[in-house]
Every structure is written in structure tokens, then in C-alpha cells.
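In response to a reviewer's request, we include the raw inputs and outputs for one of the modeled complexes. The two entities were modeled together in a single run.
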Amino acid sequence: MKTSSYHYKTLKDSPSDAELISHKLMLRSSMIKLNASGIYTWLPLGLRSLKKVENIVRRNMEEAGAQEILMPMVQPSDLWEESKRLSEYGPELLRFEDRNDRSFVLGPTHEEIITDIARKTLNSPKDLPANYYQIQTKFRDEIRPRFGVMRSREFLMKDAYSFDINEKGMKESYDLMRDAYQKIFNEIGFDYRIVSADSGAIGGSASEEFHVLADSGEDKIIFSDDELFASNLELFGEKSDQEIIDRLHEKDGKKYSIKRGIEVGHIFQLGDKYSKSLSLSIQTKEGNINPLMGCYGIGISRIIAASIEQNYDQDGIIFPRSIAPFEAIIIIIGEDKNLLNEAESLQNDLTKKGIDSIIDDRNESPGKKFKDADLTGIPFQLIISEKNHKENLLELKVRSEGTSFKDNKKNILAKLKP
Amino acid sequence: MKTSSYHYKTLKDSPSDAELISHKLMLRSSMIKLNASGIYTWLPLGLRSLKKVENIVRRNMEEAGAQEILMPMVQPSDLWEESKRLSEYGPELLRFEDRNDRSFVLGPTHEEIITDIARKTLNSPKDLPANYYQIQTKFRDEIRPRFGVMRSREFLMKDAYSFDINEKGMKESYDLMRDAYQKIFNEIGFDYRIVSADSGAIGGSASEEFHVLADSGEDKIIFSDDELFASNLELFGEKSDQEIIDRLHEKDGKKYSIKRGIEVGHIFQLGDKYSKSLSLSIQTKEGNINPLMGCYGIGISRIIAASIEQNYDQDGIIFPRSIAPFEAIIIIIGEDKNLLNEAESLQNDLTKKGIDSIIDDRNESPGKKFKDADLTGIPFQLIISEKNHKENLLELKVRSEGTSFKDNKKNILAKLKP
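The model returned the following C-alpha cells for the whole complex.
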């Protein structure tokens, strides 16, 4: 891959209505482009990061025993009537009629669809436990879409749904997903907290959210200094922050603090809410039972923005290696044909090590090339210049450390772990 | 992977309204499940095949220099007004208002969106040629959805869009895609024809369709015996088949025949239709020009059905290896624990060779297991029984040949090329 034939375009400025740093940097590095309010196209650089997130999520879902499926985005309203959510869900639920005046909704979530599938396919206790997930486009008709892909209307989500024969099973499935989520968010390199949460429009008995700590977060979370207690502040109603901290402190003497968080995951124990209302039942020796469900969401699109909120400096994004669009960029400084050959040979070496890279072979000034590399946040910058070339040296700049040093190719490659 | 913990469920019958063999077999093998008229969920087995098709398409697009992006499914009507298609496109275009009464459509195709992106990002001749593709959910509000995923309302498509500075460039981009399509359909193992076609609602000057030959095809295609001429019959208007054959024969003396085909791909030279109407222009030395576009579609979902129409027998599907949900199924006959160990060891060997497999470890009769394996069309059946186990033998049945033979594991593995 070379920048000369790749959509590698940076902008000096971002639109004035972009408030969040992640929104600004994603626009400036051309990861995304706006088509309509809250509706974006993911451009090549952005989509590469998105796919890396998808793959981390997919691998961990499979390892936890969840099976991938693909459910429709367009859902018949009948199913939402059965669950009673057609009336309960707010105006975020986009409703429309097809050409035959049948009512549909554009899926903001898929509890109804999966329960419809389950009642048609799961019919024996042998079929449980079962856990299905998908990575699919969702639509939520936000009244005020903003913050780029952080609060867009169309977005990608991973949603998983578990089915169990009893409460013990449901809790085991829930814990499996909870563990998988921790692995996923660790792999992505997040500083995050798991907090008790409100079950809201999804329903059910218990739920927890995964919050990435960031000053720009829309939610406030409160936790004790020993971190044994953590909760979304919305569970405490209308009281002031200090009041809540004081009240909790009085109870157990612990210190509490409040931080802002970006919700990137939410897991629920749903119980029989959907299996009952949509009549999913399974015949057991003890009679017919409604399987107990759990549901588990991850905001795939939002993860990119959340990661940037935690990883940037004045020059741009500092992507963790696991979700960077490329792990390395090979920057050519100079016009000698040998430099391009050296770059291609280096790219081959990197590919062999399993490191994906792009060569910046554009006819641009060194300054512009360095600035662009810093802005797009690619972890390793490998600089090939005429001077270095003559001395058989290569320069490596590690974006997250800001440091750079020269050595021969062999030693530089040895430093880059696959 | 084991069938005991996988959604591997077969049905004896398919609903009476399923007419096509592919529809019946996909339902019976639980590759898909209906949620509403023309709207399906892809279950684990079906999605595995779908992902294999996606990967073949993706790899060939990348090799042809196309860059992957992800465009929104929900599209502002404004853009469709600019292209004039809001009025020209029929009722297949689903239209709706959001909560703020702004008009949107659910994307059946993405010419407007990509041209909107292009006018915001491509601004110099250096930016051309460019080719962007996506694999994304589409919606077409068919009046009479039928034939399963062959003519569903929500479906997956690969759509690519090229931008060139002049006609020569446009044709080169077109030919690149045409070549890539041939590679893709060869890899999928189709018997297909490339035929001249009508440009229809998409517009433009020239277009060709890729048709998989099948008696159940909805289109009729006509071609000469030397195959230098091939066309969709709809280009000839209302005349009878024989009349058309006779008229062509009179002209050049060649023999012509008519067959039925399933359209799996369609490529267009669009010219400046969209770049003009949506004001995508690029400044060149000779003044401002509207880049010339091409667009290129592949019906990802439909490919699975088309493949089945060409590959089945009375026992079920006969998937080509490239898009089979699994390449091999290891069938355990007997309850001895050693058999499961042998199966797992065999699965490891296969994985090492890059062959994906599933172990049928269900507590079912041998007959049921064989029938299910035949139905789901997995290319290689590897049978582990107590008798074979004692004699250190393994049985291999090749689904497409119906033949089976026994040998030791080493020799059997040697026969399975990676």
C-alpha cells in the first residue's frame, strides 16, 4: 500500500461545529466524512481501524462460544408490538411504512428479532445454552446528533443475546460475556471502569456498563477508592455530586470520586421479559419454561472515537497498535529511486513479520509528511532519507513516545515485535 | 467447532411457498430464517458461507486497486433530488421521514452518496483515478419478494465506484473491474456468461451483466455458438424468442441459443451522469471537468442461492469448496470416548493445513448424521467409526463425487489439498 494511490488526505482545519477532539481529529485525518446530520461515511483509513475493532470483538465472542449471525436492519413492527416496545420506545425508534403500508422500524437493537428466531429454532433443553451475536448497522433517531461518530444516528454495533434454561445458566452466560468484554477492552488498550447501570429501554433485572474514562464523556460515574463500588451516577437521581459522595462516605467511610465516562459496552440480564412477551417457550421435564435471556452490546463505531479521546496530543491521534489503521508508515524523504526500492523491501520485511504498513511516497515536503503521520496516529514511523540510505541507517519514531533513533534495518526490525 | 454446541439444525420439510430449490435447501439446512416478507436472518451456517463470498470479493477488489469504505444505509433525499432519481426511481425506493420531518431513503444503491463524498474529497487530477467499494446492506422494496435471498428486500451487496479524468481512463477502470469479476466468479466456481445489458435505473452509456446459468433464472440471455455475442434478451423488446434467434441468424449465419440466467453482477460505464448532476468537478489545466464514473455491483447474498441452483442433488446442497460453510465435517459414529479424541486430533491436523471443519458429535443416529452432512453440502465428510478406529482407518466421502474410500489418516490428509 502506498499513499500515492490511497485515500490519505489530511485537512488543516475541522468544521467549527466539531466540539470533541476525537470528532475534529477524525475529520482532519479523513477517517470519516459527513453525509447528513449524524450520518457518516467511513473512509479507507477509518474503516481499517473499524475492521480491527470488529476483529478483536469477533475473536473474543467466538472464544466465549457465541455464534455469529446477521439479523435484518428493517424489522416488522408486529414484533415490537408483541414486546410492547412499539409504544414504550421513544422517538429514537424510527418507524415507517413499506409500499404495501405495512409498518416497520429501523433496528436500534434486536431483542425482538432474535427472540423471533429463537422461538422458531430453539425447541429443546438440548438447544440451550445458546448465544448469538452480530456486528450490524443500527439506527437511532437522535434528536441532536453530535460529537461525530460518538453520538451518530447510524452506527455499527456488536450485539449478542444469550438463552438459558434457568437463572444460574443466565448468570453464567452473563459472566462469560463480562469476561470477554474485559479482554476486548484490555486488548483495545482502554482505561475503563465497569459500573452498575440503569436497564432503561432494554429492560431486565441487572445491568452493567463499560465506561472509558475521559473528560469529554457524557456520563458521570462514581466509584470508591478501593474500586469495589462503581456506578453510573444517574442511578442516584437528582442529587448534587457532593451530596452523593457525602452520603456514600457516611455509610461505609470509603472515599468516593466522580469521573466522566464514555459508554462503550452495556450488558444486561434480561430474564424472561422477551421470551415471555414473544412466547418463546421450551418443553422440559418440569413443563414449559421461558428461557432466560441476556443481551450484550458494544458500540463498535464509538470505540474509535473513545480511543482517540484517551490517546492524542497537540499533533494528532496516538492510536494504540491494536486498532491503528496501519501499524507502521514508511516515510520517504527524497526523490532517489533507490529510496522507493528500500521502502518496498522494508514493507515486505514488515509484512513477513505480520506488521501492516503504508509507504508515504507522495510528492510532498518532509514537513507535511511528518505532520500527516503524526496527525493520523500510526504507531511506528520509519523514515528513509538519502542521508540515512547512504549510511545504511533507518530512523524509527515511536508516535506514543515522541522519541526517534537511528539504527540499521536489522536492529530496527528486531525492535518491532509482531 | 462441534455440532453439539453449534446451530447445526436441519429440517425435513420447507414451507410450501418455497419454490426454488435453493430457497428450500437454505431453509432446510438452517442457513437462513424468515423474519418478514423478503427479510431474513442469516444463521451461523449461512453466514459462514456469506463471509467466504465476502472475502473472495474483498481480496479481488483490493488486488484491483479498489479501496474499501462504508457508506450509510440511510441517505438524505436531497442528494436523490440532485440526481433527479427521487422522482425517476420507482416504488422500490423506500422513502421515509425522520423525527424532524426531514426526508430520507433507504439505500438501494449508493451513486449519490459516493458522488457527495467525491465532491467533498477529490479536488485535483492527482486524486484520479480512484475506485471505492463497500460491502453493505441494501434495501429494495420489491412488490413481490420471493425465492428466498434470491429476491429479498434486504440484502448484502458489494458496490464499487470509479472516478476517472477521461473516457480512456473510465474504460480502463471498467476493464479492471470486469477482470476482477471474472476472477471472483471463477473462484466461486460458477458457470456464467457476461452479457450486454440495459442500464436501467442506474443510467450511463454501457453496461454488462454477469449471469449464472440456471433453469430457474429470472432472466433470459441469448448468445452465439462461438460465444462472441451474448446479451440479455430484454434488449430485444417484445419479440418472441424464435423471432430473435432467426433475425440474428439471418444477419451473420451464426447459431444462437437462449438460456436462463441469474444476475449476480452488473457493471456500468456511467460517464458524467452523477458527476454533472451532483456538481463533482475537478480543475485541470484545460479547465474544470466532471470526472467520468463507473459503478460495479455484486449481489453477495444472492451468490449463495445462485451457487446452490447450480450445485445440488436429491440429497441436498453440493457446495464448491471456496464458499462452503465448512470445508470438512468429521462425523463420529459410535460412543467410545476415543473416537472424540481421534476427531479432535484430526480437526487439529486439518486446521494446520488451513482446512476449516466441524465435528458432528451429536447424539444422533448414523443415518441422521449422514443425511444432514449431505443436505448442508460440506465438501468433505470424514467418518470416524469404531470399526475404522480399530483398524487405524479413516473414511473420506467427497460430497460432489458421491464416492467414499478408506485409508490411513496420513494418506487421507495428503489427498486434501490446503
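As requested, we also summarize the result in words. The mean pLDDT of chain B is 95. Chain B has 13 helices and 23 strands.
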